[in-house]
Amino acid sequence: MNNKQKRTLLLIFTDPIRPDIPWSDIESVFAALGGVVSEGTGSRVRIQLNGVYAVFHRPHPERVTDKGALKSVRRFLVNAGFTPEGGENDL
User: Is 29 within 8 Å of 9 (Cβ atoms)?
Assistant: First the structure.
């Protein structure tokens, strides 16, 4: 995991929830953590990470993730065993 991905992971868990994290950076974090990212229909993106599955909608026309979607990303990462304080990859 490179420094940008580590910073993005920290931003995902920052309170208050940030409205300015680009979706491409979040997808990069999923891949760096060992997740499998695959395209669904339309703007759907399927993610598999540590046996946990989720489907997200890629934001459009904006490139940034809204607060509701970021809450879902947080929940998904926690369920998969990843937090910025540690977890499976000891970030």
Answer: yes
> What predicted TM-score, i.e. pTM, was given to this entire model?
0.87
- In the chain the domains, ranked by start, together with CATH numbers, are 3-86 (3.30.160)
CB 57 within 8 A of CB 45: yes
- Please give the structure tokens belonging to residue 42: 């339309």
Residuewise pLDDT in 10s, the chain (91 residues): 899 999 999 999 999 999 899 999 999 999 999 999 999 898 999 999 999 999 999 998 889 999 999 999 999 999 999 877 654 444 4
Going by C-alpha positions, the residue among 26, 29, 10 that lies closest to residue 86 is: 10
Position 66, amino acid: D
